[in-house]
């Protein structure tokens, strides 16, 4: 199984690139943000709880997120004949990173690669403001974007060191056309599969 973590700040292009990658490599897509937004849209208790964090740009508590991830992973694997999974938006903290490795280990699997999309902050903000105008996402406003970027720099970037030590981190330039960036990510995946 090919288990790829697509890693990067909000607005770095994880969702866009995941859409292309799942088609090319026949992967299932797990976007924890999409899972939470679907819960919110259905009006579930989990959705309401998640929104109280998401609307402020904060992270949902690790324990809850780790349980959700494991159950979504098992559902996706059962549902299809995919060749692996792309993790988009998970892990976002050191405990989540450790939990992901443990969850995969229990299923006799491992992380194949962590692809980090590196994009300068000014470009991230511009992309997110534009996305907010196009989609109406309520966390794509300037104040919440700033909070999300702070969370990313403080809580999520320490994961890079963890994956670097494990020899799993591949950092690529996340600036250019979608096709150019897709080409860079594909080269990494081709080298680990
Ligand atoms: P995203 O769509 O990946 O940008 O996620 C949107 C929001 O969902 C984040 O700002 C968090 O509030 C929440 N979220 C998504 N994934 C996670 C995660 N792995 N851990 C905690 N919160 C998350």
UniProtKB/TrEMBL annotation:
ATP binds at residues 11-16, 131, 176. One of its GO terms (molecular function) is AMP kinase activity. Pfam families: ADK (PF00406). It is found in: Cytoplasm. InterPro entries: Adenylat/UMP-CMP_kin, Adenylat_kinase_CS, P-loop_NTPase. Pathway: Purine metabolism; AMP biosynthesis via salvage pathway; AMP from ADP: step 1/1. Monomer. This is Adenylate kinase. It comes from Dysgonomonas macrotermitis.
């Amino acid at each position: 199984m090919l288990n790829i973590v697509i890693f990067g700040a909000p607005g770095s292009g994880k969702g866009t690139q995941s859409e292309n990658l799942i088609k090319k490599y026949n992967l299932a897509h797990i976007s924890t943000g999409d899972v939470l937004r679907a819960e919110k849209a259905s009006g579930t208790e989990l959705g309401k709880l998640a929104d109280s964090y998401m609307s402020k740009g904060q992270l949902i508590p690790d324990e809850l997120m780790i349980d959700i991830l494991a159950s979504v992973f098992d559902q996706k694997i059962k549902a299809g004949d995919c060749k692996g999974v792309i993790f988009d938006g998970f892990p976002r903290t050191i405990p989540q990173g450790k939990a992901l490795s443990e969850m995969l280990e229990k299923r006799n699997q491992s992380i194949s690669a962590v692809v980090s999309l590196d994009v300068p902050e000014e470009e991230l903000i511009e992309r997110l403001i534009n996305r907010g105008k196009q989609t109406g996402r309520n966390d794509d406003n300037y104040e919440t974007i700033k909070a999300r970027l702070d969370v990313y720099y403080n809580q999520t970037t320490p994961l890079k060191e963890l994956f670097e030590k494990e020899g799993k981190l591949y950092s690529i330039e996340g600036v250019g056309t979608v096709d150019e960036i897709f080409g860079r990510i594909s080269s990494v995946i081709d080298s680990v599969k």
